[in-house]
Amino acid sequence: MEKRARFRSAWLPYALIAPQIIVSLLFFFWPAAQALYQSVLLQDAFGGSTQFVGMENFAALWHDDNYLQSFRTTAVFSVSVAVLGMSISLMLAAFADRIVRGSAIYRSFLIWPYAVSPVVVGVLWMFLLSPTLGLLTHALRAVGIEWNHTMNGTQAMLLIVIAATWKQISYNFLFFLAGLQAIPKSLIEAAAIDGAGPVRRFFTIAFPLLSPTTFFLLVINIVYAFFDTFGIIEATTSGGPGKDTEILVYKVFQDGFKGGDFGGSAAQSVILMTVVILLTVIQFRYVERKVQYA
Known about the structure:
- The protein is mainly α.
- 70% of the residues lie in helices and 2% in strands.
- The protein has 13 helices and two strands.
- Strands 1-2 form a two-stranded antiparallel sheet.
- α12 runs antiparallel to α13 (262-285).
- The two termini are 23 Å apart.
- It is found in: Cell inner membrane; Cell membrane.
- Residues 71-283 form the ABC transmembrane type-1 domain.
């Protein structure tokens, strides 16, 4: 017989969800409303005077070549981080799931990077790939590869992709490992008895059953690449060289806090929020159809 919790007090359920509602109102809905309001205004750098300009801030963005370039940069960056991060994490989770002795030690080492802040991650990889002092730079130079991300836009993009992917691997690893451990071992053993090798067992049994986890991580990694990588970019390339690593969220910061264009940066944040919402809706609308929950 199904059991349900019943509250005798009429106000207790609302009191329990009140903290979450307050946090959402203060840190999401209120800033979003402020961004919508400021996006139709023209303000001076000190906020002393404002002028209603309607959709002019949005129209100006579509004629800004740097803003359109940041769209392309964000697309390349987010797809690279999501694909690389999920692929490497899935491979590590598959290997860790097969380890019998010392598995706790390996899993602990793989989880540690998630505790590191984005800024520290950026500084770490910036020193490892420093053009003059980096350990990895000297290793690359030994095999004939010259590395200087301060002058080469492709190498700068590769640097932030590596740093952002390394930061997110631990998060993806936890979910993939939990998903693999939830798969009934009897299915894997039955396939092994039928003669299926490890690779075939993984792609015909394990990976399809991981589709809910994979879909969840796809959404999370896209949002992560759009928003949570700001600290990494600020600590490594600051959007350079030129504008080669200036993704959308970093351009909002550059134009608003450094350039003093509050109306234009607010319009950019509204567009960025809309793009992320649309991407999430598209993923739930089309990608989720291929997810197997049973």
